[in-house]
Amino acid sequence: MEELWSGAPELPLASAEELWIEVAKGVSVRVLRWTPDESSAASLSPVVVVPGWGSVFEGWRPLLTEWATRRPIVYIETREKKSARITRKVRREDFEMRHHGHDVAAVLAELEIDSGEVDWFSSSLGSTLLIDAYQSGVLAGRSSILLAPNPDFPFPLWARVLLNVPLPKFIHPALVRFAVWIVERRTKEEGQRIRYRRTLMSQDLERLLLSSRVNIRYSLPQDLSGATVPCAVMTATSDTLHDMDKVLDIVERLPNAVLIEVPSNQYAHEADVLVEIEEFQASVKNW
């Protein structure tokens, strides 16, 4: 599983680059960049991708393989992932939502990218941290696709109990296997099931537990009137891991948001979803 967290994945008709950017003292996050070989596409403003909690690149390969031929792509892995280089003892507060937003801002600053010129694409935790950062004024954007954002993280009671009990490291593998079993029982889509299994099996368990303990206490601000970036909240009714009612509530609370329903969560990871994405991005010009 180590190969999932290092190396710049080569995509056809695009050049690849892997960076580790220091975002805080002792914390560097992995950033992947692709630039289209076609000069007219390479000159366009970037799409910045912020994937979900623990998400690995392989789950996004089908979409990014096509997208990287059309636009420069910057893919930012958040600090709870195994790819992050943390050279000091990790603490629970390291994974608070505000740090994720500031990390993304630090990456853009290092790359000399103005967040106001960015077309964002994000998923799950990535979507939540962007909404939080828009509301707090840490980030701006030209447009933002938010796939299955989480307004909160309602872990079941048994998980809440486990997360609040000190757990010896020797039982971590058993916990992962148990989490995989739970997710597979709850997930209807085969592609989503495969992605989550791969994600869970490849994590740094200490970071995953600490970030879980933080996320379980987090919820988006009720007032999102400051998050004025034009947003498309993308979801699928077949996605049983993300509450549709809560997703719809986010659409209502964001001042410039529309809902895009897609056939499945897996569809949102495939190149075909670029039809919906590019239609939304084009429509933003008329807002």
Short description:
The protein has 287 residues and is α/β, with parallel strands linked by helices. 36% of the residues lie in helices and 18% in strands.
For the biggest sheet, the summary is: 9 strands, mixed
Overall tally of structural domains: 1
Helix/strand class = alpha/beta
CATH top level label: Alpha Beta
Question: Mean pLDDT across all residues, rounded?
Answer: 87
Radius of gyration: 18 Å
Number of helices: 10
- Mind telling me the CATH superfamily name? Alpha/Beta hydrolase fold, catalytic domain
Residue windows where pLDDT falls under 50 for at least 5 positions: none
How far apart lie the N and C ends?
A: 44 Å
| CATH architectural designation | 3-Layer(aba) Sandwich
Helix content: 25-40%
Give the tally of β-strands: 9
| CATH-defined topology | Rossmann fold
Write down the overall geometry: globular
SSE arrangement, N to C: EEHEHEEHEHEHHHHEHEH
Strand content: 15-25%
Set out the fold topology:
Elements: E1 14-24, E2 27-36, H1 39-42, E3 47-50, H2 61-67, E4 73-76, E5 85-86, H3 97-110, E6 119-123, H4 125-136, E7 143-147, H5 157-163, H6 172-186, H7 190-201, H8 205-215, E8 231-235, H9 244-253, E9 257-261, H10 274-284
Parallel strand pairs: 3-4, 3-6, 6-7, 7-8, 8-9
Antiparallel strand pairs: 1-2, 2-4, 2-5
